[in-house]
Specification:
With about 55 residues, the chain is of the alpha+beta class. It contains one helix and two strands, in the order E-E-H. A two-stranded antiparallel sheet has the order 1-2.
Length: about 55
């Protein structure tokens, strides 16, 4: 068995803040304090009051 090191605490960058809905560290939308990834935002946007004009 190999020894595992704990994850390094990230203070900035992509790995510092996960999506509050799914937990991924990918493209996060932080505007208005949403902290949702792009995919979760598309699913929840109509419930939050965002409209798609085109």
């Amino acid at each position: 068995m190999a020894k595992f090191k704990p994850k390094k605490e990230r203070k900035y960058g992509k790995g510092s803040r996960p999506c509050v809905r799914c937990g991924s560290y990918g493209p996060i939308i932080r505007r208005l304090g949403l902290n949702l990834c792009r995919q979760c935002f598309r699913e929840v946007a109509p419930k939050l009051g965002f409209k798609k004009y085109k």
